[in-house]
Amino acid sequence: MMRRQFKPTAASYNPINALPCIEGKVVLVVKCLDQIICRRCTPNEGTYNVIAVLCEQGMVQEAFSIIQSLGNKQNSSMHDFYRSVLTGLCRKGNTYPAFQLLRMLDEAMEIFRLMEENNYRPDANNFNAHILGFCKSQRTNLSLEVFEMMIEKGYMPNETTYTIIMEGIAHENENQLAAKVLKELHLR
């Protein structure tokens, strides 16, 4: 590609990196990701989806390490980086790998605690990513726990927060509950 003066992108590297992820060849995955960074390509949602395949292979710790390393190499704030990773995985329906990376609710909340300790204040989008993941995996009860914690900690939900929760409740065929929650929100 370089000889023909085509500029590679993360999208062109992602399929190349998929096979080593499927085979659990972490060293090759890291080398390919290093090439992405060296070529000044920005990893995209597809990149995180490819890395999430490692979770499906039982290599959660390795995937988590790779994602942390990517965040450091990009010099992006952990706040934005984790929001991007979580949102990307959840929007593509890869909630299981996303939760494996976050090691479920307690550990996901631990990430928020660590963010706060390091002066990164989570925002509604960070919480929304968690809530969306739980709703998509039909664990609306856990999404409501995250929502309650969000309010208890003084974070302001936004319209997207409410939309995600309403859709999650309705998706679980709890239409009466969804209507009741919607009415309550409308009154507020």
Automatic annotation (TrEMBL):
Extent of the PPR repeats: 123-157
Keywords noted in UniProt: Repeat
UniProt KW Lipid metabolism keyword: no
Superkingdom of origin: Eukaryota
UniProt keyword Repeat, yes or no: yes
One of the Pfam families matching this protein, by short name: PPR
InterPro entries: PPR-containing_protein, PPR_rpt, TPR-like_helical_dom_sf
Family of this protein: Belongs to the PPR family. P subfamily.
Family annotation (NCBIfam families): PPR (TIGR00756)
Name of the featured protein: Pentacotripeptide-repeat region of PRORP domain-containing protein
Organism of provenance: Carpinus fangiana
